[in-house]
Model the fold of this input.
Amino acid sequence: AQGIWFPSLATPPSREPGTAMSDVVGPMLMLPWYNSAPLPDKTEPPKARSIGFSALSQRLERVLAEQLFCDVVFLRGQEVLCRAHRVVLRRNPTLNLQFEPGGNGNVVPAEVTLTVPDGVSAESLREVVRLHYLEVDQIGPGGAVDASRPALVSAAEALKGRASAEEWRALESVFGVFQPHAVASWEALRTAVATERFADCALRVAAGGVLVPAHRVVVAGVEDGHYFSASLRWPGGDGAAPSVSMPEGLSQEALMALLRLRYGGDDVDLDCVLEARHFAEILDWPLVQKLIEDRLEALLADAGQVDAESLLAVLSHAEESLNMPPRLKVAALSAAIRHWSKVTEVAAADDSLPLGRRAELGVMSRIRRRDGHVCSSLEEYLHAAADDLVDWESSLGSGAPVAVRKKLDSAWKHWHQMLFEYGYLFGAANAEQWQEKVAARREAFREERSRKMGAEMRLPAGRVWFEATVDWREVPQNAICPGGLEYRFDMQTGRNYARISA
Done:
């Protein structure tokens, strides 16, 4: 939790010598925030550039290592040295791979055989094939920049140093030379796979039965994509061009947006972002899901540019989702509360949020405008605020300045107002029990402070020190009162009352 202050304590009076700091401004309030604040007030400075293999490259390389869904075979005589994927190898124009159109808009994944000259070891061949799966992104403030070609040349030079001259010439006769001018003609990995060529499966959209060509090496995986891996293991799933049925409710637009991200893109389609996030989880594409969630969080950070309908949709999705990350739920809630004045108009005509929750969010919006606090519920705020105020009051010394007592009482008064709202929404009985417990604790603190003050002043036996508040309190007959109070006498009961002067 991160400590924050009540605004009413922002300009505390100066501290007198010998007075505790908590007597002046109270303790640091510990209303719980979240492990990572979703909506920072200041934009973080751009991070330094870093270089690493792209997520697409790492995923395809793992599929290659497991030799899954391959449609290219490298032979030396009758010996199979290695298998690979045409959709990846097509980035190298020297290989000149061909494809055959099939029916229903798909491509027949006829296996291609490539002959390797004698003198090439299986290990060297696998290393050269693996180079085709290499994609290096240089990440910086401007986004990802493809830095693959220099890395390809460097990796090829390292491999050349380990191979004999004869073996290297044999490899270049198949794959071409790995010089900068030659590698410059290679397609980027994400561009190479973003094609319908060599498609070896079709994704069937439930609505309309549309078939979308795809590649098993991309949609399935070793560590993710288990929805597709399991579907392809069903009888008939390993045929020439198997069809994988998509989950009910997934539209063609959302599927295409998901595929663009799975195939290495980073542009999130905001028109179907919530639907895409939901089905990315079902399809077991965690990196795609994270891309969408990061884009959503960035969008919510600038929620002033988002229309009310979209904010309400994101909030409703967050309220109903069981698996949405807490940071994203917080971002959606915080954005909606910050802009509740425009969201509430849309929510009034929409049934996506229950009436009680809308009323609660309205109260939380008022709390945020007053104190800057954003909590997930009114109950959470009341618990946190009560704990903070009780902690402050417990540390308040018997000689605390009047100004501090006024601020403490003002904070408690606001808490009781919010408790009244809570009782209206969730039942008066709970609110009354809560109020009685807090009142008992506060009275115990006051009695303890009065006892200490009486001891410090060495009051005569039978005398007590009266501690006033901003509200009228009865003055016991044996009490000694501080100066500067307002008094009231009840003619009917004969009782005296006092309070701190306004």
